[in-house]
Specification:
It contains six helices and seven strands, in the order βααααβββαβαββ. The chain is an alpha+beta fold.
Amino acid sequence: MNLRKKYLELRAPEPEDLDVMYRWENDTDIWQVSNTVAPLSRYVLKQYLETSQADIYETKQLRLMIVRIEDNKPLGMIDLYDFDAFHSRAGVGIAINEKAERGKGYAAEALEIMTDYAFNHLGLVQLYCDISEDNLASLNLFKSQNFNILGKKEAWQKVGTIYKGVFMLQKLNPNRKF
């Protein structure tokens, strides 16, 4: 299974990624999207890196670095989470953490690679995600990758003192018969 396309490759996090992951995980501008409520220490991230090679069937999660091939620069991360082998599904989340690299098509390519991996290697039947009603870039990204909006959970996400609605999206594996 090849986790590369034209511009990007997805790879497991390496110990050398500690500094960039520390910066990204503690960027309060994206905490709302990642449901983060407190900073992570270097120690916690180092422990994660040491154990992140565990199998998705054990941890129920897979986090991969999004890396630009031409210069080997990490641009962000993509996750499969809440992996459910019995029901053949997982949530998917993505972040292009390097702000200057957003809007260049990298998220779409990374999502294509991860979707192909999930459907054709892991044999998943579906992927899903929850996206805040005001995150138009993510909504447009997932809709462009044939994720369908299933509905909206009203007042689902607390941000400061207000509550926002969240759309639930789903993509079914086109190679499976239902």
